[in-house]
Amino acid sequence: MELQRKVAEAIHVLNHDPQSSNRVAANQWLVHFQQTPEAWDVSTSLLTSPIVSLFDLQFFAAQILRRKIQNEASNLQSSAKDALLNALLIAAKRYSSGVPQLLTQICLALSALLLHADLYSKPFDKLMFALQNLQAHDDGNVALLELLTVLPEEISDTRHVSHQSNLRQELLSHTSMVLDFLLQQSEKQFASPLYPLDNNRKILRCLLSWVRAGCFSEIPQGAVPSHPLLNYVFNALQGTTFDLAIEVLVELVTRHEDLPQVLLYKVQLLRDTLLKPALVNADFKVVSGLACLMSEIGQAAPCLIVEASSEALILTDALLSCASFPSEDWEIADSTVQFWSTFATYILSLGGNKKKDRNHVKDIFLPVFSALVDALVLRAQVDEFTSSDESPGLDLPDGLLHFRNNLLELLVDICQLLHPTTFVSKLFFGGLPSSNISMPLREIEAKLFALNAVSEIILQEGEAFDFSLIMQLVSAFSVRPSSELKGFICVVYRSLADVVGSFSRWISVFPSNGRPLLLFLAGGISEPICSHACASALRKICEDAPAVIQETSNLDILMRIGECLDQWNLALEDEEEVTSAITVILGSVANKELQNKLLTQLLSSSYGVLSKLVDDDIESSSRQSPATYARMLSSVTRGLYRIGTVFTHLATSLSSIPVSDGPILSMLTAFWPILEKLFRSDHMESGSVAAAACRALSVAVQSSGEHFMLLLPSVLECLSRNFLSFQSQECYIRTACVIADEFCEKEVYGSLFITTFERFTQASSLMGINSSYICDQEPDLVEAYVNFASALIRGCHKELLGTCGTLLEISFQKAAICCTAMHRGAALAAMSYLSGFLEVSLSSMIETVNCKSEGSFSVVTVQVVSHCGEGLLSNLVYALLGVAAMSRVHKCSTILQQLAAICSLCERTSWKGMLCWKSLQGWLNSAVWALPSEYLKQGEAENIVREWSEALGGAGIDYLENKGCNLGSNNSLGGGHMQGKHGRALKRLVRDFADSHRNDPNLNII
């Protein structure tokens, strides 16, 4: 009693004391109390004692029992569980007419007790027998309804049980008794006017819970439609139980294939008695529920709807009414979309022998889908408040965006059913209104959205429609003052720009459209909401109609757009679209003098801001004002991106013209001196400037080809020096990798690349990579470095590679460490380098198998593998542990097979003293036995070593045989990855090992 009193005092303080410190202390005491053995008896006593009547105490006791049962029931003796079951049943009966939340907690505790019972003891049989006593009283029925409601829900919650499927089957074995009980309760409800009104809701909640558990799967399928409870649920659609009845019917329709046909015959009754009054009275709840139910009926059986029976036509008519229903959001219309999509897709799928049927069905339902277009366009509009909103930055509501996204596929299907020409004329029947009759902008915007959604289908059909309607809008918007481009007007502008971009190929055919299109797009690019759509449309117009845009007046507009880029401050991706559009046109200008003049005009501001930044006289004064300096760096970054974009698209546009005859060489001549000065300045400390400069340099290299070679010494010196100064900026190594891909095969520059490789490798940031943890801190740096190393291995002459054994060994070690990184990109890039290194090494070893001259690449390879092989194999094994291992199986298997091939080859040669088959076996044995014991089952280590050794032996020979065949056919890099039955067997072993160790513990110990 004393402990009960303390519990009561603590609960009172927790719920009512004004001092927060007292409440915190009381909460801490109660948390501690819950964990004590005494909490069982005290909570049971508080819940069952007739002298305790405080809700706070009773609710707390029920909660404690529920939690302790969930966490500690497995420690209770069977006699204690039986006593607890009886106590909870008594409490359930006692509080069945009290506060509902308390009864729910008691029933949850009872459910938890059943979930933790031994199935062999038949806990559900015991419960059902004990509950028979409760049925003698109405209050007992209330408690039984609540328990039968929460029990299936708790069993479905897999967090609570490990034997869910067995419990579910045990539960469903009592389906017949439960359904009979619910039927009795429903009959009592109708027979006695004194019966509690809310019992209908309790009956439906309980039935819903059992339907979700799959109760009707326990009775013959043919008996479900005629079950008396179905009529009870259908009748419950009248009144306050409507929402629960809808939920039950929807669950039944989705689970039982016989029901859609039965309910289809009841749709007319639903429409006449419930839907029509609800539409008149704007009853959102009823319209929403019926829309959901009817959509599920149609979606579950589209084959019934295409029969076009009177019931099917009534269903589609009712759903059209729901789709058109005006509401504050788009939930009701959205709930019908899945049905219409399923139905339209079903009709379109009727082919072959059913093609005549498809045409017949289309003819019947064309009026339905035609009306559906009107309904969807109506609901896809913004409301009047949004359409009159002039707030800056206004965009469509999230609900409307979600609805429109769901509409995309449906609109495409409807367009196919109606035919594109009919669909377009449906949207713009009779054309746009004349100037003295205004169509609401929100209607125009919704129709533009629909037209853009089906643009791909219309283009595929190939029948161009009259674009004069679109051009009327373009012309109207192009002359609007910029001060009027605000609020919803910008949203309409964006939708129109989307349509222009989608149909640019057809719209731009007419030269007269060029000027208004350019003026329209120029007017919208500066507005944040429509800038992306306008920039994208501008690029498409320029790509599709270069001849039209090259006209003098149009070219002037285009160049003015380029000159405004500095003041517009667009997103980089939008600025790239605009720059690409202009470059496409300039690249096609035939007059070389004019072309160079216009390119200079386009890039003059970019060159100017670059020159200004690196000017020694201005540098110090700019830095004195941080805000001014930050703005200048931003301008430089944009200028560099612009220059890089021009290089990229000029190279594409002028691919058939020699670089020496085009503008690229003159651009490079002007660009590199400024860029070199920037690279040698302290401004490269800025990450954004460095990334933009490296990107511009990379595309300049790729665009200018061999003309860039003379600049290689100074370029590589700048890259390596800057990386050593700013080692967090991996962009320098990425750019060097681009240059290596282009030029490292040139023997004259080979030593230059090796020197750069050495400077990168000796950097403290790379030398410090000695664990996978550090690799995961700098994954981009690791990826850039191993990609650069891979480029050298692929391209440099082998004689040159033979002189840098130490560098290769260091890079090999770093890559082996990074195989175990959690970062997928870094790990796979490291494995690719290792595999590429071993591939090139094998080719060289086979070619020079009898040559053992000091410093040859083959000897260096043997030395690197002999020194690093053990660490590599250990890291490969660790890389195959954990959830990310399956993505690394192929590369790990390839590397293992290559290692086996190298060791097998050395076994036959004079290299055997440095590397042999026993070396690989020893590494494998060490790697497997070094794994912590918790990773392996008893005897697994011995099996892995034996099976993998056998597979590696055969895989190495398979690889060499395939490699020899490829060498004979001048395909030295063709590779024998996973060739032969032993190679495939090795990969199966690796995959099985990774699959069986996905959930191993403590994977962060690497």
Question: Characteristics of this structure?
Answer:
mainly alpha, 1006 residues
Structural category? mainly alpha
Approximate helicity band? over 70%
First-to-last CA distance: 56 Å
Mean of the pLDDT scores?
Answer: 85
- Largest sheet features: none
Principal-axis shape equals globular
Number of beta strands: 0
Question: Mind telling me the C-alpha Rg?
Answer: 38 Å
Task: Name the beta content range.
Answer: under 5%
Number of helices: 53
Q: Which regions contain 5 or more consecutive residues with pLDDT less than 50?
A: 430-437, 967-976, 1001-1006
Would you summarize the structure shown here?
The protein is mainly α.
Notes on the protein architecture:
With 1006 residues, the chain is mostly helical. Helix content is 73%, strand content 0%. The protein is globular. The relative contact order is 0.02.
How would the blueprint of this fold be written?
Blueprint: H1 2-16, H2 20-34, H3 38-48, H4 55-72, H5 78-94, H6 100-115, H7 123-131, H8 138-156, H9 164-172, H10 175-191, H11 199-213, H12 228-235, H13 242-255, H14 259-264, H15 267-281, H16 284-300, H17 302-305, H18 310-324, H19 331-349, H20 355-379, H21 384-387, H22 398-418, H23 420-427, H24 441-453, H25 455-461, H26 468-478, H27 488-502, H28 504-507, H29 514-525, H30 531-544, H31 546-549, H32 552-563, H33 565-568, H34 572-587, H35 592-614, H36 616-623, H37 626-653, H38 663-679, H39 687-704, H40 712-725, H41 731-743, H42 750-761, H43 764-767, H44 772-777, H45 779-795, H46 798-801, H47 805-818, H48 824-847, H49 857-879, H50 889-907, H51 917-929, H52 940-968, H53 980-996
Helix pairs in contact: 1-2, 3-4, 4-6, 5-6, 6-8, 8-11, 10-11, 11-13, 12-13, 13-16, 15-16, 15-18, 16-18, 16-19, 18-19, 18-20, 19-20, 19-22, 20-22, 22-23, 24-27, 26-27, 26-29, 27-29, 27-30, 29-30, 29-32, 30-34, 32-34, 34-37, 35-37, 35-38, 37-39, 38-39, 39-41, 40-41, 40-42, 41-45, 42-45, 45-48, ...
